[in-house]
Design goal:
The chain is an alpha+beta fold. It contains 3 helices and 10 strands, in the order H-H-E-E-E-H-E-E-E-E-E-E-E. It has 2 domains: about 40 residues; about 150 residues, no CATH class.
Amino acid sequence: MLSVTGPPDVIREIGIEGITTVKNWLCRAAVVTVIVLVTTPVFAQETPSPDDTIVPAVEETKKPVTPAVEPVTSGYDIKIHDLEEKVIGLKERIFKTKTRLILLREQILHNVIAEARVVIVHNNDMSNAFTLEQVIYELDGEKIYYSDNQGGVLDEKREFEVFNGNRLPGNHRLSVELIYRGNGTLFSYIDGYVFKIRSSYTFFAAKGRISRIKVVGFEKGGITTDLEQKPYVRYEVQQLRYTGDKPVTEEGLEDNPDAANTNEE
């Protein structure tokens, strides 16, 4: 039951209907207040705090697996590797060089046997009355040797090799020029004399053999021979054969050099 208090004049003006209206309005306000008070804790409990915010789950994506990269080789290892490659290359070049040398040796031996070897030796058999001043040798028109007695070179060598090489089989022409000077130490009358000897000789070089020609300068004649006629040249020829890589003399020539062909020019 709602009681209305107030001045009598006001109550009389409102009337019964006004009182009823106010009564209804107050009831509604009370109901709304009760509803608000009841529902507020519920909403307070349901409202999430910032800390309790639920983060939506993110689907994890699988990344492609990258193969493990080997560590970079150090500079020292790189130098060792380069050195190994150089050593291998050097070994290969050495092997190729040895192969070429073997082939070259076989070719040389084949050429030596297929061609003719010529060996020319000079021998000074003159007495001390003659001093050898100059020597010139030509083979088939080609100069193969020259020497003079500057510094006494020819005085010290009584025999020396002039030529040793291969030639085509067949006939060859050897030319020699020797210059002697008279030595007045023994015979004063020949001091200052100059003797020039020119000589040529043709020999046959056999295929696969060694032709050894020994050119000997000697004094021809005796006491009664004129001085100008004494200096002379002779040729001693030997034919040698090969046994393997070494030359071997023909039978009888090694033990008896005088058995070789001798020619005087």
